[in-house]
Write a structure and sequence with these properties.
17 helices; globular; mainly alpha; about 425 residues
Length: about 425
């Protein structure tokens, strides 16, 4: 492996770039009022420095800010959403319980009066059953995750209160208001009709994106209009209960024992929740454990991820697993764990896993593994993350990446997302 610069070089460069511009008195006052958010995945100091650059009119960020505010503007007249408005409650009858349906399971028989679901259901890996988007909470919760993230970031960078107020409304409606709140469990995630009322595997419905909500909350906590001290306290209590459910429930323990991307995402979600709720010891233990529990068995010596390559959506799942890893590594910064520097007994590392994707990510070579719907841009964020962490090959690949739909927002929210989401 070629020598890599130490972590922090890129962040230091951002600070230096901001420092070369001498702000006016009014700009200095505005910037000093911008607090550093205690984000779990995002680097709060880096967000503050990006805000400083925007205040100084940095033209390199103008386009990204326009892409972000376009997304935020689209959320202003949508929602809020709630778990209680689905046609039928989750099994057990509590309307406040979250419900989703297994996406790759399909009816095998004609629907009849005696068999209204068309059971038994059979699995078709990578083929998403469209019925999972009706009658459950899956699409609405994705809107909650995405909207609060976009809106909170847009408020932080522009100061426009309508973004913060909308994000606060969405969060209060889904998580806090007594009549509409979600119970802090995933007992009925990814149910299969006529087979299971819920599965541990359904935890990934949240672990994919809920860390973005944690960062949105941290951003709003810096003084956003419409987000009160009571909201902050209540949201922390909800997150503490959810964290404890992940640790103590049978489903949580089962998901934590998963050997593929489900286990990686579980660790990432748990570490973020632990950090956000003040349990830094749990966060640190979780990230340290991921070295031998996740990286060693999941990543091969050449950087491939054999379990993900076996899927019908091998490109999607290879980038998907690395979204969890790179976000987990980002959380590690806060608790003194450098996950990027770890190498397993066969030389396994996150750097190698990202480098394995570079030929296809840059368009230099085709992806030769099974993939039902290849999107080159899906790797863009994880390549950015590796480049920021000091991977020279990843840094050289940046100009050759394909921008995701809606623009490349890395400069404003430098944390990997699953850009080719198949959640609907």
């Amino acid at each position: 492996m070629s020598p890599r610069p130490r972590l922090g070089v890129v962040a230091a460069a951002v600070v230096a770039l901001a420092a070369v511009v001498i702000p006016s008195a009014s700009a200095r006052e505005a910037s000093s009022a911008t607090k550093v958010p205690k984000t779990a995945v995002l680097d709060g100091v880096r967000l503050q420095q990006t805000k400083l650059r925007l205040d100084h009119g940095d033209p390199q960020l103008d386009r990204s800010l326009g892409d972000l505010t376009t997304r935020a503007d689209n959320w202003l007249d949508q929602g809020p959403w709630t778990v209680v408005d689905k046609p039928k409650p989750a099994p057990g009858g509590d309307v406040h319980d979250y419900l989703s349906q297994a996406p790759y399971w399909w009816p095998s028989q004609p629907r009849t009066a005696d068999n209204p679901w068309g059971c038994p259901y059979v699995q078709r890996d990578g083929q998403r059953n469209p019925e999972v988007d009706t009658g459950t909470d899956r699409q609405d919760v994705e809107r909650v995750f995405d909207s609060t993230y976009d809106l909170s970031l847009a408020w932080y960078y522009t100061g426009k209160k309508q973004y913060a107020e909308k994000a606060a409304q969405v969060l209060r409606t889904w998580f806090l208001a007594p009549g509409t709140r979600m119970n802090p469990n995933l007992d009925h995630g990814q149910f299969i009709p006529c087979k299971y009322d819920g599965r541990a595997i359904g935890i990934i419905d949240f672990s994919q994106s809920y860390t973005s909500v944690l960062d949105a909350i941290a951003i709003l906590d810096t003084g956003a209009p419409g987000w009160s001290k009571g909201d902050r306290t209540a949201m922390r209590a909800w997150n503490t209960d959810f964290r404890d459910w992940l640790v103590d429930s049978a489903f949580g323990k089962e998901e934590g024992a998963a050997k593929n991307n489900h286990g990686t995402f579980y660790d990432m979600q748990l570490a973020a929740l632990a950090y956000a709720t003040g349990d830094q010891d749990l966060a640190r233990r979780t990230i340290l454990g991921a070295r031998t529990l996740r990286i060693d068995p999941q990543i091969a010596a050449d950087g491939s991820q054999p379990q993900e390559l076996a899927r019908t959506r091998s490109w999607h799942y290879s980038t998907f697993d690395l979204v969890a890893y790179t976000r987990l590594a980002a959380i590690g910064r806060h608790v003194g764990v450098n996950l990027w520097s770890y190498e397993g007994p066969d030389g396994q590392s996150l750097f190698k896993a990202v480098d394995y994707l570079l030929p296809a990510a840059t368009g230099a070579e085709p992806w030769t593994h099974p993939e039902l719907e290849f999107h080159r841009f899906a790797a863009s964020d994880v390549v950015h993350a590796a480049a920021d962490a000091g991977d020279r090959a990843a840094r050289a690949a940046l100009p050759k990446l394909e921008a995701p739909p809606g623009g490349d927002l890395w400069a404003l929210r430098p944390a990997a997302e699953q850009l080719d989401s198949i959640a609907g």
